From TrEMBL:
Keywords: Membrane, Transmembrane, Transmembrane helix. The chain crosses the membrane at residues 47-68. This is Fatty acyl-CoA reductase C-terminal domain-containing protein. The lineage of its organism: Eukaryota, Metazoa, Ecdysozoa, Arthropoda, Hexapoda. Residues 56-152 form the Fatty acyl-CoA reductase C-terminal domain.
Length: 169
Protein backbone atom coordinates (compact mmCIF):
# COMPACT_ATOMS: atom_id res chain seq x y z
CA UNK A 1 0.00 0.00 0.00
CA UNK A 2 1.31 3.43 -0.92
CA UNK A 3 0.35 6.51 1.05
CA UNK A 4 -0.26 9.89 -0.50
CA UNK A 5 -0.06 12.79 1.96
CA UNK A 6 -0.15 15.56 -0.67
CA UNK A 7 -3.83 16.12 -1.16
CA UNK A 8 -3.82 19.24 -3.29
CA UNK A 9 -6.23 22.04 -2.47
CA UNK A 10 -8.71 20.03 -0.41
CA UNK A 11 -6.64 20.10 2.80
CA UNK A 12 -4.24 22.84 3.78
CA UNK A 13 -1.77 22.25 6.57
CA UNK A 14 -0.02 25.37 7.77
CA UNK A 15 3.34 25.63 9.48
CA UNK A 16 1.51 27.05 12.50
CA UNK A 17 -0.62 23.88 12.69
CA UNK A 18 2.50 21.70 12.59
CA UNK A 19 4.16 23.80 15.29
CA UNK A 20 1.14 23.54 17.60
CA UNK A 21 1.06 19.79 17.03
CA UNK A 22 4.77 19.55 17.84
CA UNK A 23 4.29 21.54 21.04
CA UNK A 24 1.46 19.25 22.11
CA UNK A 25 3.57 16.16 21.40
CA UNK A 26 6.49 17.61 23.35
CA UNK A 27 4.25 18.35 26.33
CA UNK A 28 2.47 14.98 26.23
CA UNK A 29 5.59 12.89 25.58
CA UNK A 30 8.80 14.72 26.51
CA UNK A 31 12.18 13.34 25.56
CA UNK A 32 14.08 11.83 28.47
CA UNK A 33 17.24 13.91 27.98
CA UNK A 34 15.89 17.43 27.47
CA UNK A 35 17.99 20.32 28.79
CA UNK A 36 15.01 22.68 28.82
CA UNK A 37 11.45 22.77 27.58
CA UNK A 38 11.37 23.96 23.96
CA UNK A 39 9.55 27.10 22.90
CA UNK A 40 8.93 28.43 19.40
CA UNK A 41 8.77 32.07 18.37
CA UNK A 42 7.82 32.71 14.76
CA UNK A 43 8.88 35.78 12.82
CA UNK A 44 9.19 36.74 9.16
CA UNK A 45 11.83 39.37 9.92
CA UNK A 46 15.34 38.00 9.43
CA UNK A 47 16.93 40.48 11.87
CA UNK A 48 14.53 39.56 14.67
CA UNK A 49 15.14 35.87 13.93
CA UNK A 50 18.91 36.38 14.11
CA UNK A 51 18.68 38.29 17.41
CA UNK A 52 16.44 35.59 18.89
CA UNK A 53 18.83 32.91 17.65
CA UNK A 54 21.76 34.62 19.34
CA UNK A 55 19.90 35.39 22.57
CA UNK A 56 18.03 32.12 23.08
CA UNK A 57 20.38 29.63 21.42
CA UNK A 58 23.96 30.78 20.93
CA UNK A 59 24.55 32.55 24.25
CA UNK A 60 23.21 29.65 26.37
CA UNK A 61 25.16 27.21 24.17
CA UNK A 62 28.36 29.21 24.67
CA UNK A 63 27.79 29.12 28.42
CA UNK A 64 27.09 25.37 28.51
CA UNK A 65 29.99 24.56 26.17
CA UNK A 66 32.25 26.73 28.33
CA UNK A 67 31.19 24.76 31.41
CA UNK A 68 31.83 21.52 29.53
CA UNK A 69 35.34 22.70 28.60
CA UNK A 70 36.03 23.63 32.22
CA UNK A 71 35.06 20.11 33.27
CA UNK A 72 37.33 18.60 30.59
CA UNK A 73 34.41 17.33 28.52
CA UNK A 74 33.90 17.76 24.80
CA UNK A 75 31.78 20.82 23.90
CA UNK A 76 29.03 20.00 21.44
CA UNK A 77 26.19 22.54 21.46
CA UNK A 78 27.80 25.18 19.23
CA UNK A 79 28.47 22.58 16.54
CA UNK A 80 24.87 21.31 16.73
CA UNK A 81 23.38 24.82 16.70
CA UNK A 82 25.50 25.75 13.69
CA UNK A 83 23.98 22.84 11.78
CA UNK A 84 20.48 23.82 12.91
CA UNK A 85 21.05 27.41 11.81
CA UNK A 86 22.31 26.34 8.37
CA UNK A 87 19.32 24.01 7.96
CA UNK A 88 16.94 26.83 8.92
CA UNK A 89 18.52 29.14 6.37
CA UNK A 90 18.29 26.47 3.67
CA UNK A 91 14.64 25.69 4.48
CA UNK A 92 13.43 29.24 5.15
CA UNK A 93 12.27 29.75 1.56
CA UNK A 94 10.07 26.67 1.79
CA UNK A 95 8.73 27.56 5.24
CA UNK A 96 7.94 31.18 4.33
CA UNK A 97 5.96 30.39 1.17
CA UNK A 98 2.75 28.48 0.57
CA UNK A 99 2.93 25.30 -1.46
CA UNK A 100 0.18 23.36 -3.21
CA UNK A 101 1.03 19.92 -4.50
CA UNK A 102 -1.00 18.95 -7.54
CA UNK A 103 -1.66 15.24 -7.59
CA UNK A 104 -4.67 14.84 -9.85
CA UNK A 105 -2.81 12.21 -11.89
CA UNK A 106 -2.09 10.09 -8.79
CA UNK A 107 -5.74 10.23 -7.76
CA UNK A 108 -6.87 9.36 -11.30
CA UNK A 109 -4.39 6.48 -11.40
CA UNK A 110 -5.72 5.18 -8.09
CA UNK A 111 -9.27 5.28 -9.43
CA UNK A 112 -8.30 3.25 -12.52
CA UNK A 113 -6.77 0.34 -10.56
CA UNK A 114 -8.83 -2.83 -10.50
CA UNK A 115 -10.61 -3.54 -7.22
CA UNK A 116 -8.67 -6.76 -6.61
CA UNK A 117 -5.32 -4.92 -7.01
CA UNK A 118 -6.10 -1.97 -4.74
CA UNK A 119 -4.68 -3.70 -1.65
CA UNK A 120 -1.29 -4.13 -3.33
CA UNK A 121 -1.09 -1.12 -5.65
CA UNK A 122 -3.70 1.35 -4.45
CA UNK A 123 -2.93 4.84 -3.25
CA UNK A 124 -4.53 5.54 0.08
CA UNK A 125 -5.04 9.24 0.62
CA UNK A 126 -4.27 10.16 4.22
CA UNK A 127 -6.41 13.27 4.10
CA UNK A 128 -8.94 14.31 5.18
CA UNK A 129 -8.04 13.01 8.62
CA UNK A 130 -9.35 13.99 12.00
CA UNK A 131 -7.09 15.85 14.41
CA UNK A 132 -6.66 12.80 16.62
CA UNK A 133 -5.62 10.66 13.64
CA UNK A 134 -3.01 13.24 12.65
CA UNK A 135 -1.82 13.36 16.28
CA UNK A 136 -1.54 9.55 16.37
CA UNK A 137 0.45 9.57 13.10
CA UNK A 138 2.97 12.05 14.48
CA UNK A 139 3.11 10.20 17.81
CA UNK A 140 4.19 7.05 15.95
CA UNK A 141 6.79 9.12 14.07
CA UNK A 142 8.11 10.48 17.37
CA UNK A 143 8.36 6.99 18.84
CA UNK A 144 10.36 5.85 15.82
CA UNK A 145 12.63 8.91 16.11
CA UNK A 146 13.32 8.19 19.77
CA UNK A 147 13.98 4.52 19.15
CA UNK A 148 15.95 4.53 15.91
CA UNK A 149 17.68 7.92 15.81
CA UNK A 150 18.26 8.66 19.49
CA UNK A 151 18.66 4.98 20.49
CA UNK A 152 16.47 5.48 23.59
CA UNK A 153 13.46 3.67 24.93
CA UNK A 154 10.28 5.72 24.85
CA UNK A 155 9.03 6.29 28.39
CA UNK A 156 5.23 6.11 28.59
CA UNK A 157 5.09 6.40 32.38
CA UNK A 158 2.72 9.25 33.28
CA UNK A 159 4.59 9.98 36.53
CA UNK A 160 7.83 10.40 34.56
CA UNK A 161 6.13 12.67 32.03
CA UNK A 162 4.67 14.86 34.78
CA UNK A 163 8.05 15.10 36.54
CA UNK A 164 9.84 16.17 33.35
CA UNK A 165 7.13 18.72 32.55
CA UNK A 166 7.20 20.18 36.08
CA UNK A 167 10.98 20.49 36.01
CA UNK A 168 10.92 22.29 32.66
CA UNK A 169 8.18 24.83 33.32
Amino acid sequence: MMYNAAFGKSVRVTLETLIKLGQRLTWDCPYSKMLWYPNILMTHNWYIFYMQFLLFHMFPALLIDGLLKLSWKKPMLIKILRKIYIANMALSYFMDNSWTFVNAKAIALSDSILERDKDNFGVKCLFPMHDEEIYAYYMHAKRATVKYLFKEEFNFDVAYRNTVNQNNI
